[in-house]
Amino acid sequence: MVLLRRHHLGKKSTGPNPTDRAKSGTKRSLLVDGKGVPLGITADAANRHDMKLIKPTLQNIVINKPEPTIKLKQNMCMDKGYDYPEVYELLEAYGYTIHIRSRGEENRINSKEIPRYRAKHWVVERTHSWMNRFRRLLIRWEKKVENYLAMLHFACAWITYRAAGLFG
Q1: Is the pLDDT of residue 155 over 60?
Q2: pTM beyond 0.85, yes or no
Q3: Residues ≥6 apart with Cβ < 8 Å to 142
Q4: Beta carbons of 103 and 80 less than 8 angstroms apart
Q5: Is the pLDDT confidence value at 2 over 90?
Q6: CB contact at 8 A, 51 and 87
Q7: CB 35 within 8 A of CB 167
Q8: What mean pLDDT is predicted for residues 96-122?
Q9: Beta 2-6 vs 139-140: how paired, if at all?
Q10: 9 band by pLDDT with thresholds 50, 70 and 90
Q11: Is pLDDT of 112 > 70?
Q12: Tell me, what's the pLDDT at 106?
């Protein structure tokens, strides 16, 4: 999730940003594939919890996902902010193999009880960085959430187009 600054004009889908002195802000929830190509996106108020945005993000997937097979598993990697029973139930209903770091696991990793694993969420962070290069998205100037979502979808389409040229 990315918290963004918000201009004073918009009313819907904005809320006090918990990391920016409670200024009004917007949060993006983004689902990407293994190469960072956006598959689904939604936006809501900055004070909305991340786990509440999972269902709208999954509902906004713009392509039909293939049926899971033995060779082709549908994996979902998330950080410990999503370690809630509701999230597990929703992802199982969608047919994903779930990889969520449990809360408190960081302390066990730092105390050398279990081996350190490489983080898997960097792919979505890179895609958020690509989206932040669109100055129109970095600060939300649109009054209507529909206009902001249209700009998000345009940025996702552009990133997908660029990724098709870069990755094959």
Answers
A1: yes
A2: no
A3: 10, 148, 151
A4: yes
A5: no
A6: yes
A7: yes
A8: 65
A9: parallel
A10: low
A11: no
A12: 57
Beta-bridge mates of residue 26? 4, 45
Cα–Cα distance, 75 to 120 (Å, whole number): 11
Q: Considering only CA atoms, give the Rg of the chain.
A: 17
DSSP per position, 39-100: EEEEEEETTS-GGGGHHHHHHT--SPPPPP-SSS--EEEE-GGG-SHHHHHHHHHTTPEEEE
Please name the residue that has the structure tokens 């209903």.
Answer: 93
Surface-to-core class of residue 36, CB atoms within 10 Å of its CB (0-12 exposed, 13-18 middle, 19+ buried): buried
Rounded distance between C-alpha atoms, residue 125 and residue 132, angstroms: 11
Residue with tokens 């779930």: 98
What does the alpha-carbon distance between residue 1 and residue 142 come to, in Å, rounded to a whole number?
20
Terminal CA-to-CA distance of the chain, rounded, Å?
28
Q: Which tokens go with 139?
A: 């600060």
45-100 pLDDT, tens digit per residue, is 888 888 899 999 999 887 877 776 777 778 888 888 888 999 999 999 988 888 88
In the numeric block, which tokens belong to residue 132? 């932040």
Query: What average pLDDT does the chain have?
Result: 79
What span, in angstroms and rounded, lies between the C-alpha atoms of 56 and 149? Answer: 13
CB-neighbour burial class of residue 111 (10 A; exposed 0-12, middle 13-18, buried 19+): exposed
